[in-house]
Design brief:
Helix content is 53%, strand content 4%. It is mainly alpha-helical and 175 residues long. It has a two-stranded antiparallel ribbon with strand order 1-2. The radius of gyration is 18 Å and the shape is globular.
């Protein structure tokens, strides 16, 4: 379904929002080929249920140390880096498609329904950026007041190369 049809009325827009929800627990084609990553569950399992960068590992855990302390998030060709980035930007792009299409909803759609769809899509986008900040940005206290460039800011459906922006810009968009 093209972007305009996906939000042409309240019912289809609700289905589009449901599609984002569905993406949050099913395997994605690009990530399934690189391992068994399936949405939120897998990302929380790999990135959040393990220890922190400050955890000291014994000799038996040495093989998983780079996963547990998130060092593989800094390796460009690591599947542990790719999966979270791909997954959350897929959610962001889907939310952006809904947000950009709201103005084209049929005139019979109530203002409250449009507001609900927009608020829901903005929430999915904000959530995704918050997760990306958790994985790819320094702690605020270590980020020079949010000046460190860490993520690509996408507020439309463009897919081209974009520079990384400051952490503070991402937070402004979230808020």
């Amino acid at each position: 379904v093209d972007e305009k049809a996906a939000v042409s009325n309240f019912k289809t827009a609700l289905s589009s929002l449901n599609g984002i929800s569905q993406m949050m627990y099913v395997p994605h084609e690009n990530t399934a080929k690189k391992g068994s990553f399936a949405g939120e569950y897998s990302l929380h399992k790999v990135y959040e249920n393990y220890q922190s960068p400050n955890f000291h590992y014994n000799e038996y855990a040495g093989g998983w140390q780079k996963v547990h302390n998130m060092k593989l998030l800094m390796v460009k060709d690591s599947r542990f880096n790719f999966n979270a980035w791909y997954y959350y930007y897929t959610l962001i792009n889907s939310a952006n498609s809904i947000i950009s299409g709201i103005s084209g909803m049929v005139k019979e759609t109530k203002a409250e329904e449009k507001a609900f769809i927009e608020a829901s899509a903005l929430t999915f986008r904000a959530y995704s950026y918050q997760r990306l900040l958790n994985y790819y940005a320094k702690r605020w206290v270590d980020s020079d007041g949010g000046k460190d460039a860490c993520l690509v800011l996408r507020i439309d459906t463009s897919m081209g190369d974009s520079p990384l922006v400051a952490q503070s810009e991402i937070y402004k968009q979230i808020y």
